[in-house]
Every structure is written in structure tokens, then in C-alpha cells.
Amino acid sequence: MTKLIQSLALLTLIVTAEAVFAAGEAVPIKTIAITEGLHVLMGRGGNIAVSTGADGTFLVDDQYAPQYAGITEAIKKLSKDPLKFVINTHWHGDHTGGNEQMGTAGAIIVAQENVRQRLSTDQVVEFFNSERPASPAIALPIVTFSKDITFHLNGNDIHVFHVLNAHTDGDAVVHFKQANVLHTGDTFFSEYYPFIDSGSGGSISGMIKAVEQILALADDKTKVIPGHGKVSDRKGVEEFLTMLKAAHKKVAELIVAGNTLEQAILAKPTAAYDAKWGGGFLKPDVFVSVVYDSIKRSVLD
Ligand SMILES: [Zn+2]
């Protein structure tokens, strides 16, 4: 029985890893208006936010390299100005794959210092055994920050701040203050169980703290752009936080009671949440594995 579970889980992991981390073929970009001068671009990979206006174009994340042409075309429809800044919310390839082309085109890439550190060297996402070689210099963030940085562009104070050991060790949340819009990077997924990259310094308790920080900035009118999934709001983030806290508590209890990973998966600790969150790229048993792994090794748990 245990062997069967393990091989099923392994199969799910392999399929999932291909779906999540392969650059694949370019897909068309869909542009969604959030407010005047602020749009979301959806294609393949993480959600992109783009701010346009008199002060220049500002991008949050850049998906995979094959998406570059489509992203550039979508931005040109919003503004004729060249792209000035690209923020990376973290180092994963579905958020930074366009860096080389963006950097070559003259954009200034900005990220938390751990993102530059990881992109500068060969990386492995251990949970999926997915390798990524070091990026060329032109693809690296040339401006880094430790805690936060603020941009004053297009009528917005755009506060980009680091949240500790959440999805990775280099996550940034982007707060467009006047627009009342947040881009959360992968600290929030609006429709599915999230991945937590413990091998890159992420942890479920850090993710819970990050989501609490996001909620503290949101009111009933705030629009919240998740790393993945449709554009959400304060209520969507609250539901995500409730699910994360329950998963953390239940899996931690199973670990304290001496359960192995296989036993923890069989106990179905996330059953009450699986219908809402388990139909995405992390199925319930894989999400339980992610949480179990995080609690076992986390720097914060
Ligand atoms: Zn990610």
C-alpha cells in the first residue's frame, strides 16, 4: 500500500514539475485592466503587473523566455515608452525567464538580494528535482535591496518589500499605494494550493506571516494580483490564510504524533479544503508533502 502511494505521489510530482517549470511554447498574452495605467498580463508562468504612464513603464515579473515577444507586444499596446524597470518577486523561472531579453533591451532589473544570489549560481528546486543553471550577467538584477525599496512613478508610490522565508528566501510583495493594488508574487495563489520551496529557504510559517502582512495592507476595495490564478481581493486572501493555517496545524500535529509522510498523506489532513484548493497544479497529497517537508526542515517552524 505504502509503495503504491509513493509511486502515485512520484508520478504526480513528475507531471506537476513538467507543467510548472518547463518554459514550453509561447502562449498568447491576455491583458486585464485593473485601474487606469495598471494592467495584469497573463500568459504562461506567473502573473505580470504593468504600470504605464508619464514616468515610464514598470513591470512586475516576466514569465518564461518564449513569452518575451508576446509580453513586449502587449506592453506596446499600453504605452509607446521603453520598459524602464522589471521587478522579480523571486528567482523561479516562471517569474524571471524573460530577464535576459528584458535586460538586453535596456530594462533595469530589481530584486531582493537573495534573488540575485540565486540567479547568479546553479540552482535546483529540490522538491521537483528541477535544475536551473546560473543566469548570464545581463539577466541578473542590477539593483538589489535587503528589506524594501520604493518607486515614485505614474502617480503611485510603489513600495516593494521583502517578506521572510515564505515561498522562497527572496520574496517581494509590491504595493501600488494610490491604486490600492498588491502584487503578492507566489506568497499567494488565488485558486490552488501553493508551492512552498523549502529548498530555497521558503516555509509554511513564513508564508502565513507574509499573507498576514498582505492582509494588513488590504481593505475591501483592494485588488490583489496573486502569483498564479485570477485577480483576487481581501476576502480571497483571508480564505487562503485560513486554509494555510489549518494545513500547518494539522500536518504539524501529525508530525508531532510520529507519523511518516505516507501516514500523514493517508490521514488526509487537508480534506476540508481539497474541493476548493486541490484542483490546481498541486494535488492534495502533493500539497501535504510540501507542508510536511517545510515543517520538518524549516528555519522558522
Ligand atoms: Zn515560484
Average pLDDT reading: 93
Report the structural category.
alpha/beta
CATH class label: Alpha Beta
Task: State the CATH topology.
Answer: Metallo-beta-lactamase, Chain A
Radius of gyration: 19 Å
Outline:
globular
* Separation, N- and C-terminal Cα atoms: 30 Å
Beta-strand proportion = 15-25%
Which small compounds were modeled alongside the protein?
zinc ion
CATH architecture: 4-Layer Sandwich
Spatial strand order of the main sheet: 1-2-3-4-5-6-9
Strand count, sense and closure of the main sheet?
Answer: 7 strands, mixed
Please trace the helix and strand order, writing H or E for each element: HEEEEHEHHEHEEEEEEEHEEHHHH
